[in-house]
Amino acid sequence: MKRTIESLGEYLLLIYEIILNLFSPPFEKNILINQIYEVGLKSLPVCLMTSVTVGMVLALQTGMASISVLNEPAYIGTVVTFSLMKELGPMLTAVVLVGRVGAAITAELGSMRVTEQIDAMYTLGTDPIKYLIVPRILAFTIVLPILTMLSILIGITGGGIISYLRFDIPSTIYIRDSLDYLGLVDFFHGLIKSVIFGIIVSTIACYKGFYTEGGAEGVGKATTSCVVLSITFLLIGDYFLSSLLIALGIG
Predict the structure, then answer these.
(1) Which ranges of the chain does DSSP label H, i.e. alpha helix?
(2) Where are the domains of the chain?
(3) How far apart are CA 161 and CA 166, in angstroms?
(4) Would the pTM count as exceeding 0.70?
(5) Taking all residues of the chain, what is their mean pLDDT, rounded to a whole number?
């Protein structure tokens, strides 16, 4: 219990220092651009592959269920679009980035901590939070919403392919079903979630790496802890965020 409270204090203190460094010059533009490339472009293929397969599965299951109930495949586009836009798109993209990028950030920062590179930066007068952490969090927060929207679009396309090949639903009908009940608030529902998810994952990954201790074994434990904690807080945060957005009329 004592260690949990200490960890929470360290995390909140890190967030405070990040906010202070976020608005103070100099700004590490080159590092930010490099991190956007590492987090975004390199993660794009696996995000799109995950999303398109999920969209195909959703279309298949929805079509089969509607046939068993209504004797015809109905509302496939509606179900696929709303499922991806509000829940599966932001969540799955965030989970993919946890495994591909979040763990890597923790391992990288953790290795620098246990080899005393971070301590050396303090000695040389360089703020490691501004140089190492702020660009990564900014890159994560910028890139995750973009990847989420692309993943949603590709997932909807995958659902349309299955609707046509398996249930002979023309693309025009699928697109009409997808757009008929879709509003701007539904778009913002998924967009807001992806921004918050990006902040959650990136701050946890940076915190776990920055406060790693115990040598190489500690780096491994910190990386595992980052993945577990990130996914846990994503799932918990998803419920409360959904409740809040619905209460505010966004979705």
Answers:
(1) 2-22, 29-36, 44-70, 76-83, 89-97, 103-114, 117-123, 128, 134-167, 171-180, 184-210, 215-247
(2) 28-247
(3) 8
(4) yes
(5) 88
